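User: Structure please.
Assistant: Input sequence and predicted structure:
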Amino acid sequence: METRFLDSFVTIAECGSMAEAARRLNVTPTALAQRVHVLEDELGVKLIERSGRTVQLTEGGARVLARARHFQREVRELKASASEGAFAGELRLGTISTALTGMLPAMLATLAARHPKVDVYIVADVSRLLYHQVISEALDAALIIAPQFAIPKTLVWRELRSEPLVVLAPTALAHLPPLELLATQPLIRYDRNNWGGQLADQYLQEQQIFPRERFELDVLDAIALLVERGLGVSLVPDWPRAWPLPAGVAILALPGEAPVRKLGLLWRARSPFSRLFEELLDSSETVGEIVGT
């Protein structure tokens, strides 16, 4: 049995689409379907069923998926243990959207220089979903916002950044107090479906500010562009940016002690890549770029 056929099946299950899985694997949908057929013949069970443009796992496929993911992990651990100090194999890394451009490039550059045999597959999502993917072992590690609950001892957490909440406002309104802006101007809300947005929402409630909401979205760079257009103000963390804020946007500090969004790397304590993560985060060039952003 070819391991890439199992990898293809797992990718199809994760994408829910044969076409999307084919794009991700850089093969044709026909070739991908042939891999699945071969795998079904070898296992003697039907794995997926097509429904329009999507695919659904059969009962047998769901059982095989759990074992296939376990097998993938075993293969990665085998490659890591056989590498004699230099890691090899696939690393599945999750990241929130703000870290994707502000923090991740420095980490990937260091990783590529020190461990060129490691192939990195990146998943971008919100912290809540990435956290559970690390627990379920669908991801090896994730750059996420620190949860507001205790992290179990089966996981390792390394904080990389501490970001106070700030108000983004058009420069024409920068002379006004930030709390007044939040109370009187349309709010471009940081998405409450993620932990950072929940932190901002909690602050507004504590200040008894009930803003007139105009938009709600997750991408902080896009929020800044909307603020520049004069469409409102926003309450966001002072996030790591790959490029400067638009010229028409001002950053205003909150009065007193502002709530803080903490970003860091999360991984399983028994991960075969634990030493790689520790080494990566301890490297002066990576940490310097991340903290200094």
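DSSP finds twelve helices and eleven strands in the chain.
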